[in-house]
Design a protein that fits this description.
With 456 residues, the chain is α+β, with helices and mostly antiparallel strands. 46% of the residues lie in helices and 16% in strands. It contains ten helices and twelve strands.
Length: 456
């Protein structure tokens, strides 16, 4: 028999018993839909875990802290200061994309008639883009920048008029990129001293700074900080310490203690650094290498395995339900095929007599089973998308939940169907149907011609 003849005959045979075929296809549809939806619930849970972890911090970044400078590692080695040499060592580790120290400093910021006291974060401009800080307006830092800053989204709301007798915040449309900005390490600069307040012996000279970009809402410290080049923050820090020494601490503003030199009890390196890892599979390895050097290291990815273990039982139950539904569909296909063989025994004998080969008989029944798998798979995938949409619309709280985001409350999906799951479901339904049709097709091949022709 020609392949086209076999194909057309398989369709004709299925169409003979429409109701039975529809019910069998319905079984495959339900089985395919069940396994897709059940897997999608587990995938949504894992995706939501990653979303929550990213909200805690970029999972590709490792936060490093130098808590134990001067101590020893578990294997007895001295814990070195986290200085520029060590940062360079971090950046050359296998799987690392880049590393930067973090320096924090609190300064007085003045823009027009408004002022505020803000935290400055110093980072290496060379790795600014690696930090994945979203820029809403303007640009980020570049290697040639000096007295420039990138402004956190909530920083403009912190400005106020110090000369007003009542609280007068900056207007809602206050844009620091359009203002002339100056910074000072004297927190009382430009303000009338209160009675009894000592005047500084040496006045601080303010520095003009340009705002080149505004950070989009991130939900972390960048929203409330000003980001500047590391070298510039180091310079400001040195000037602040000099100002405080000259004035014996009077009239000056303090700042973040990040890097100090001199004195046996003072830190000789950075307190904090960020390491950006190239891919998620390398995060744990890099984390362990950093810890082996004696530093405290943290990444939100550490919590992912704990979350997976907590939900492992539920995901296995969901997968088991889906597999069970598909097995029931396979049994339904086998039943349909065996019934078809019983009803068409005489027809099979006639086909053999007129010259049909055994492989033609096998191919005919496998095609019939394959058509059931294709139709059931397509309908099952379509139904699974519909159920997934309903689960997400009504926020059925299995793998989905409500999470606070900078833009407001965001509903995390209860079901997530990626493209690979659609392809896997289609292949699985067809293979399952072919497997279900394998035994019936072999039975049809082995039918005795004489017994088949005697069959009424």
């Amino acid at each position: 028999m020609k392949y086209l003849d076999t194909l057309l005959l398989s369709i004709k045979n299925l169409w003979r018993h429409k109701l039975r075929t529809i019910l069998t296809v319905l079984g495959v549809t339900i089985g395919t839909c069940a396994i897709v939806v059940m897997i999608s619930l587990g995938l949504a849970m894992e995706k939501n875990f990653l979303t929550q972890l990213n909200q805690m911090g970029n999972i590709m970044q490792i936060q490093v802290y130098s808590y134990n400078e001067g101590g020893t590692t578990p294997d007895g080695n001295k814990i070195e200061p986290m200085d520029d040499k060590m940062i360079e060592k971090f950046s050359k580790m296998e799987g690392v994309e880049g590393a930067t120290p973090i320096m924090e400093l609190s300064l007085k910021i003045m823009a027009g008639k408004y002022t505020t006291y803000s935290q400055i974060i110093g980072v290496d401009p060379k790795v600014f883009n690696m930090l994945d800080i979203p820029i809403q307006e303007g640009r980020g830092l570049t290697e040639t920048d000096t007295d420039v800053m990138v402004v956190g989204s909530y920083v403009p709301q912190m400005f106020y008029n110090p000369k007003s007798t009542r609280w007068e915040p900056a207007p809602a449309d206050f844009n620091l990129m359009e203002q002339k900005i100056t910074v000072s390490w004297d927190w009382n600069y430009g303000e009338k001293p209160y009675p009894g307040m000592p005047k500084p012996k040496v006045k601080a000279r303010p520095v003009k700074v340009e705002a080149v970009g505004i950070v989009g809402q991130t939900g972390n410290i960048y929203d409330y900080s000003l980001i500047m080049p590391l070298a510039t923050v180091k310079k400001y820090k040195a000037e602040q310490e000099k100002f405080n020494r000259q004035n014996s601490g009077g009239g000056g503003g303090g700042g973040g203690i990040i890097i100090s030199r001199g004195g046996s009890n003072e830190m000789k390196g950075y307190y904090q650094a960020i390491i950006k890892v190239k891919d998620i599979d390398s995060v744990t390895d890099v984390l362990e290498k950093v810890k082996a050097l004696g530093y405290e290291a943290y990444t939100p990815l550490q919590y992912l395995e704990d979350m997976k273990q907590q939900s492992a039982g539920l995901r296995q139950i969901l997968l088991g339900i889906g597999i069970m539904a598909l097995l029931i569909a396979i049994i339904g296909i086998m039943n349909t095929m065996y019934m078809s063989i019983y009803e068409r025994t005489r027809e099979i004998g006639i086909i053999k007599v007129i010259g049909a080969r055994l492989k033609d008989i096998k191919r005919l029944f496998l095609l019939e089973a394959g058509w059931i798998g294709i139709l059931g798979g397509v309908c099952g995938i379509g139904l699974s998308f519909g159920l997934s949409a309903l689960l997400n619309k009504f926020q059925i709280n299995i793998g989905g939940q409500i999470m606070w985001m900078p833009q407001g409350d965001q509903a995390l999906p209860s079901s997530y169907i990626p493209p690979w799951l659609v392809l896997a479901a289609a292949v699985c339904s067809i293979l399952a149907s072919l497997i279900a049709g394998l035994l019936p097709s072999r039975r049809a091949m082995r039918l005795s011609v004489m017994k088949a022709l005697r069959q009424d």
